[in-house]
Design a protein that fits this description.
By secondary structure, this protein is α+β, with helices and mostly antiparallel strands. Helix content is 28%, strand content 39%. The protein contains eight helices and eight strands. A six-stranded mixed beta barrel has the order 1-2-7-4-6-5. The longest helix has 12 residues. The protein is globular and about 50 Å long. The protein starts with 8 loop residues before the first strand and ends with a helix.
Length: 183
Amino acid sequence: KDLAEIEHVKIVIPMIEKQLLISSGRQAEGAMVRALSPEDLVKKPLLVDSIEGADVSAFEGDVVLVGRRLAQKMGLVPGSELTLISPNGKVTAFGTVPRMKSYKVIGTFDVGMYEYDSNFVFMPLSAAQKYFSLPEAVTQIDVSLDDENQLKPVRKAIEERIGGAAYVYDWRQTNAAFFNAID
């Protein structure tokens, strides 16, 4: 709520983002799982407009949306089961047992960026909070601006607002490899 009050901040989306192993049948791949609420999903038109095989209203409960390239690689189609495997599971006398849970693939997305379409899985925030044992918590907050030219002053305002409580990184840092490759 505090970040939404900063001038030029247009959208604030709390989310969970974790790297996991996903499996289906005999295939397993590393993937980035990003979780957000159904209400916040619709605030991402690039993602929503690229969804194939699913209606946004189905984005609730134990379901996932999978990048089209990742789905093709793993042979996933709407209706398939996908298992998330987290190394941070239960500690037993025999060691740590990975946390595993299956989710229904309700659709795929193709935003046109290779990294997203071949590595990302989206799931509802409430399901991720249960899976990762983070009730009412998130791992990051995604902030969108109404004017990209205001990035530096808005970033400074965000850093001042949160103090040292979190690390702030922007789209230039997130996509540094891409920008270095085209320079």
